[in-house]
Amino acid sequence: MFQRPATTLYRNGQRLPLDGNPVRLSVNPRARRISIRIDARQGEAVLVAPSERRLDQAVAFARTKSAWIAERLSHRAERSPLEPGQILDLFGRPTRLVAGPGSTAARLTHDVQGPLIVSGGTGEAYVRRVLTLLKREARQVLVARTQVHLDALGQRPVKVSIGDPKSRWGSCSPHNRTIRYSWRVVMAPPEVIDYLAAHEVAHLVHADHSPAYWAVVHRLVGDHRPYRAWLREHGPALHGVGAA
């Protein structure tokens, strides 16, 4: 007798508590395997599967990693609004936010205590001006470091854009030669920023994360593990910046 194939109990985009941890199910047809990532801004784990039929496998896998998920979610940083008096790291250096006169644009300067960002405006207007400056600084340094690594590999130019993805620090599309970065990495130390640029440029050579790919990254920046560890540890804090 003909039997209908079993259907999954889960669906793309579904949210559910899993062993006390908030998780969201996500289908990505380009994914080669089941994986788990932490969405620091939403405070949840994201279970990624290549198809909806494999979401039940993703849930089963996540159950074996419940302690790890709980530990990573516990590191979620408190939200840090962008307002006068706050201190954020810019290129790894503590930088004070200061109120400026009127509606002047945000600018990066220094005083005897160190770097500071001075901006006019109040409330949302102040936040917009500071974000504009941070994104501009991010674009400038990431474009420069991207070009350094392109030259090192003999690669043609790419289009670089700056955004604010929820979890990724960068992404590369080799087919149309575009690289997209999170502006938030501008708050990381320079060597971490440089690693991120190398990480994405290396995808122009190898689109996967195979040993051959990591060999290219190693050629560009040496041992990448400390930089990846820094992003894992401090990423939640970076994602908390700019939230009310």
From TrEMBL:
Gene3D superfamilies: Metalloproteases ('zincins'), catalytic domain. Residues 33-234 form the YgjP-like metallopeptidase domain. CDD domains: M48_yhfN_like. This is M48 family metallopeptidase. It comes from Brevundimonas vitisensis.
